[in-house]
Amino acid sequence: MSVDATLPPAAGRGGFLASRTALAVVIAAYTAYTLGPFLWLATMSVRTTGEISADHYAWPRPFHWEQFRIAWVDSDFATYFWNSTVVVVAAVAVVTLVGAAAAHALARYRFRGNRILYGILFSSIIFPPQITLISLYQILVDYGLYNSLLGLTLVYVSLQLPLTVYLLEGFFARIPQDLFDAAKMDGYGDIEIFRRIVLPIGMPAIATTLILNFIQLWNEFLFAVVLITDPDKRTLPIGIRAFMGDHFQDIGMIAAGVMISVVPVIVAYVFFSEKLIRGMTAGAVK
Amino acid sequence: MAVVQLSKICKRYGSGGPVVVDNVDVTIGDGEFMVLLGPSGCGKSTTLRMIAGLETISSGTLSINGRTMNDVPAKDRDIAMVFQSYALYPHMTVGENLAFGLKRRRTPPAEVKRRVGETAAMLGLVPCLDRKPQALSGGQRQRVALGRAMVREPMVFLFDEPLSNLDAALRVNTRNELIKQHHRLASTMIYVTHDQVEAMTMGTRICVMNGGRVAQVGRPLDVYWNPADTFVARFLGSPPMNLFTVPLAAGDRIRTPAIDTALTRWAPAALAPLTGQEVVLGVRAEDLHLAAASTGSAEAGRIRGRVFAVEPLGAETLLAVETEGGAECTARLPRDTRAEVGAVVDLFFRPDAAFLFDARTTAAIPAQVRSAGTGPAGAPGRAGAIP
Q: Which residues have C-beta within 8 Å of that of residue B20, sequence separation ≥ 6?
């Protein structure tokens, strides 16, 4: 007599199907909930503000693709896009590199004050970033970095570094000590071990922090609006705000601007999503 | 090729911390396969890591070929190590794992390719060269770890319990593979294990450690037949040696209600100072018989007790007996042995199969030394067998 172990027993097959159906319904509902507003925004981006006011939910007829050209060329979105790219890419690169090195040091080396340093870093995650706004503003003014992309980049680095170190330290601490010992026996020094062992093995976690930092900084508004005043140094979130007046809001153009700004985030997510999921689930399954 | 010398090596964690390795004094000869054997926490792995350069040496001197190595970084000691967890780099293929150490030493690419190819062929890893470690079986991973050490052709090989993650059958195969490689390479190898079978079968010498100290160093069978103290006596051998704390009667005898034996291996002068005092009598399980005639001795020693467990193992039967004084002992008997739990039995042994230890210091009381390969007089076959 043979038993097919891959199939659930007949009695349980109905329950299995029901649970799968329920799961599919929940996932479909959640997808509609999250994707709906995005699709609505996408339709608005190719409609004029007048059309939107007449009917909020109508299908675009005709498609006003020229709104993207107007935003990109006439409304200086090309400049904002470039500014955002420079600031965010530089900040994310520094945060990733410094954060990974710091996390490795905290996870691997026993030195006096290790846990105190870690505690200080961790505590800075707890406080809302707004409380540092005034002091950061004053520091940037004092050092001549106010209203500069370099100043904003440094602020972004300081904002994201603690969380990055916290996330990476947890992952790096789980890399077995034997791997480091083996690399030492193979003749490698500390920096080489970091470069050749820690970074490649930690790539899922690094990709996770990279994409989280990128999304967070790409959408960052508060510090950018306070620390940047020149129109030619604006980042995308501030650029979008230019379509908002006191009495009139150009919803169609705002939607077009948001669609432009969201493209790099989608590209980054598509590129890193596999590693992001691996990083998020690392350690969950043996 | 290297001579590794440990002179009064100590390891202490922190200034007031516990001493985990205490005054270890061992010289490992060129081409020798030295096994550091002991229970968990005895300091054997720490000693190995100090030799590797992965732990600092608190005091004492480590030298290789006469050169002091205490302050030489691990990467410059020309030592290779095989780890218990294999420690294969998960993001590299088998080929890259093997070549990793060679590349660091700026070995020409053609030479790297040649050595990796040779090592892979020797260990049967050629089909796996492009695979990542997670796609390998436990045995294959173990061979990659071994290959990674071999490919570098180091002065000294270190092994930190490399077989403990393998199943029993694979362990035997890999053990034989290691012995073969040692014969082929004739390199100095230091091997840490808590498994006495590995130690007895692989080591040219074994160093038994206990509580951070060296309990005894010697050839496996020498140590087995001439244990330095009760710890070594019980650690080597399965089942462990039976020990009984008993008073030493006059006339070089032990005579209690449960045990009666002459002590023929000891000169009367050696025992005279101990008369009336307590000593520890040791008898190995395989030296016990149910019939006096089986011992081949005219005046066999005797242990009387009540059977509390019978363990038929197929090839043999283990009989667990409790003596009148409450001491327990195990006899390894022929497989067709029949005994009832609760029955009182007499177990017999040759007097020259007995061991005697000082009850206070646990050290062996010096007797006629048994040489490896002879064992107790009249039992050459048994002495030659793996315990």
A: B11, B12, B13, B43, B46, B212
